[in-house]
Amino acid sequence: MAIHPPQQRIWWREPIEKMEVAWIAIAFVWGLVMFFTMIAWHFWGQQNLANEAYRVQPEAYVAKVEAMTEQYKVGEEGDTGIEVVHPPAGSDVYLLARLWQWWPVLELEKGKTYRLHLSSADWQHGFSLLPTNINIQVHPGYEMVVTVTPTETGEFSIVCNEYCGIGHHTMSGKIRVVESKGGK
Amino acid sequence: MVAVTGVDVGRKPLAPSFRTCAVTGLRVEANAERLIKANAVAGVLFLALGGLFGLLVALTRWPAIHLLPAEWFYLILTAHGANVLLFWIIFFEIAVLYFASTTLLNCRLPAPKVAWAGFALMVIGAVVTDIAVFQGESTVMFTSYPPMMAKPHFYLGLILFAVGALVGCGIFFAALVVAKEEKTYNGSIPLVTFGALTAAIIAVFTIASGAIILIPTFLWSLGYISHIDPLMYKVVWWAMGHSSQQINVSAHVAIWYAIAAIVLGAKPLSEKVSRTAYLMYILFLQLASAHHLLVEPGISSEWKIVNTSYFMYLAVLGSMIHGMTVPGAIEAAQRKRGFNKGVFEWLRKAPWSNPAFAGMFLSLVMFGFIGGISGVVLGTEQLNILMHNTIYVPGHFHGTVVAGTTLAFMAATYLLIPLFFKRELVLKKLAQWQPYLFGIGAGGISLFMMGAGTLGVPRRHWDITFSDAPMGTEFSAAAYLMLGLNGICAVLAAAGGIAYILVVVGSILFGKRIPDGQPKPASAPQPAVTQYGNAGTLHLPGTLVLVGIFFLSFVLYYYVNWKYLAQLWPLR
Fold it and tell me: Which residues of chain A have a CB within 8 Å of the CB of B381?
């Protein structure tokens, strides 16, 4: 029994059941299939997370977001006083995570490709775009650049899914995707 | 240290004293018995405490009830993680290590004073960390990611606890050496002991990783170190955080084999295959950090793919092997007993009213189907984008650690009480129902959290209605329904947990005493399969069907998630 020493002293010489051999072979091949599926998706899939990231001082990153916001501000979001930014199609856009807000509100054009920069001013945060369900971890001191192409118009919420203190559940933001204003 | 335990270690005779269990025929040494009892009891106390916290968390996330205020919710959630995932499971694992070494190898426990010192360190560490959490300034969650900082004694408690656990592992290794030296067994160590050895080896790696990251973090919280890089912290912390789950897997797989052996006399189909599967865990689990870093900045896809797959899924292969050999051993034993009709008579006529067996089998099924499959999907580089940090993640690990490990440990308790406390179980009817109550509850918690996570509901989140937020989001009615069902299942699991505590405490205090048996192993069930490893003698169609269903579910669920992923906005 499994609680006693093996009955046959030379247990490593015993032949293995055919059924066990078959199952091991199937499981091994399945493992390889799953392994190569991840690799294949890098060649043929559309959804792969960027490897592009830079070290950045949180203050320097905040300055970049502020500069973009000032340059491309088109209004404020309702009565919240939060800036809405419409950066040029295809440009670098910056989103700041801080206690407890995603800032600013970004207005993007459908079908255009943007370089979305993500970083935090303070603690770790979790970028979670809903209802699309894209989830990316955001660190202070690291600036990640995700190249993204919104494919549908509408309002998309950003919530935080990394615990960041007592206001965590109030942390939110928005990306609004609008029809492209002409040109490719 | 001795005073903490209340046992007078100082006046013990030098020669080890053994007694023989009347039920199992196993020989139990006095020092080992006291330590096993102490560790198991401490574990159960922390389970009761942490389980209560878990119920409070689930009732708060049930939108219709929303029990706790925000501050308390996050505090209790931090305490829940530490008390069940760490304290309950590791105390019980130390008991399992001492059982698998001393009892199964028929040897004495070496250096009992050192073992008691380790136990005391664990108790002190756990209490210190709990105090830190309840003082209110260490609400940093179980993961304690910097730059968020807890009070120094939060980290100090965890370090002390880990050192104590390391001492326990050392005692286990020493017991193996003593048994070999004193020739207390013949041939190789039993498979269950081999599984415990796997768990202990992984534990040493895990605790070392924990020390490498928690000691600097402790110094940082004291102000001696100015900066802890959050990404570096996560890489090393998860070498502890995820690898420690492989300790649990090794330990509860060992318990599956042990229960199948003790209850049914089941023998492993092949020692070689089962042991190699354990070896896979040891060789590849160090890569486990990667599962938690799949959507982090600054980590290359190559690193993620190699590591998150435990290098081409060779550790997953280990689990899939156990997933076949454990039910296979049970089927073989049952068929040997004459339950040969059709494909599933062996399963229908299994001892389902024996809580040890029922708990073990439910744990096996749910660990594989719920915890195992979701774990692989969650740990796939690109698929993680869909689920990272959603409530799918706790859904997954409640499938592994609650429905898998905790249920298996509960099942083992029903055998440990007669063996070490020399008491019969009380409330036998309640005990019979307990694995089902707890199992259905735990399985439901896992599934409904996974369901809500698929809809984007974040984990560790007090209010998904965003009533205080300037810009909220609207979750679908289905998401609210899932969280409600999760709450109901948490109540079921809590009822199962209370039943467990009642049976365990009741039996230890009031169970009918079992006299010591004669020193002969006759009362143990005889091995049901006399010859194994001989192709053709074993025919296990039931197991074949079970693993076939498992494999199909796995493949389907895996590719369904790729289909979901393909619908996301293009990212690169």
Answer: 38, 41, 49
A117: closest chain B residue by CA:
B297
Question: Would you call B532 and A41 a contact, using CB atoms and an 8 Å cutoff?
Answer: no
Stretch B396-400: mean pLDDT, rounded?
A: 97
Is residue A64 included in any domain, yes or no?
yes
Residue A149 maps to a domain:
yes
The pLDDT score that the predictor gives to residue B548 is 96
Nearest chain A residue to B231, by CA: A139
Q: Which helix (H) or strand (E) element contains residue A63?
A: helix A58-72
Shared domain for A40 and A61, answered yes or no, is no
From the CA of B377, how many Å to the nearest CA of chain A? 10
| Number of domains composing chain A | 2
Would residue A132 count as lying in a domain? yes
Domain ranges of chain B: 18-568
Q: With contacts defined as CB-CB under 8 Å, which chain B residues touch A6?
A: 187-188, 190-191, 271
Cα torsion angle, B429, B432, B435, B437, sign: negative
Q: Do A40 and A58 fall into the same domain?
A: no
Please return the burial class of B539, using the count of CB atoms within 10 Å of its CB with bins 0-12, 13-18 and 19+.
Answer: middle
Write the ipTM.
0.95
Question: What per-residue confidence (pLDDT) applies to B31?
Answer: 93
Min CA distance, A145 vs chain B (Å)?
8
Residue A101 lies in domain:
51-178
CA distance B29 to B19: 7
Which pLDDT tens digit goes with each residue over B176-226?
Answer: 999 999 999 989 999 999 999 999 999 999 999 999 999 999 999 999 999
DSSP string, B292-350: G-TT-TT--HHHHHHHHTHHHHHHHHHHHHHHHHHHHHHHHHHHHTT--STTTHHHHTS
> Do A84 and A148 have their domain in common?
yes
Which residue on chain A is closest to B452 by alpha carbon?
A133
Q: Is A88 found in the same domain as A37?
A: no
Instruction: Sort out which chain A residues have CB atoms less than 8 A from B273's CB and list them.
Output: 16, 20, 24
**Whether residue A73 sits in one domain with residue A138:** yes
The residue in chain B having the minimum alpha-carbon distance to the alpha carbon of residue A126 is: B389
Summarised one tens digit per residue, pLDDT across range A15-64 is: 888 889 999 999 999 999 999 999 999 999 999 999 999 999 999 999 99
Q: Is residue A7 part of a domain?
A: no
| Chain A neighbors of B226, CB-CB under 8 A | none
Tell me, what amino acid is at B99? Answer: F
What's the mean per-residue pLDDT of chain A?
A: 94
CATH of the domain at A108: 2.60.40.420
B216 and B261 Cβ atoms separated by less than 8 Å: no
CB nearest B533 (choices: A14, A48, A139):
A14
Neighboring chain A residues of B139 at a CB cutoff of 8 Å: 166
Q: Are residues A142 and A75 part of one domain?
A: yes
Residue A127 sits in the same domain as residue A90: yes
Question: pLDDT tens digit string along A88-107?
Answer: 999 999 999 999 999 999 99
B60, B389, B393, B557, best to mutate vs chain A, most A CBs in 10 Å:
B389
Is the CB of A159 less than 8 angstroms away from the CB of B458?
yes
- At residue B63, the pLDDT reads 94
> Are A38 and A103 contained in the same domain?
no
Q: Where are the alpha helices (DSSP H) in B140-242?
A: 152-181, 191-222, 230-241
Among A9, A20, A35, beta carbon nearest to B273: A20
Q: 3.40.50.720, 3.40.50.2000, 1.20.210.10, 3.30.2010.10: which CATH number matches B18-568?
A: 1.20.210.10
Element containing residue A93 per DSSP (H, E): strand A92-98
Q: Whole-angstrom Cα distance, residue B89 to residue B251?
A: 10
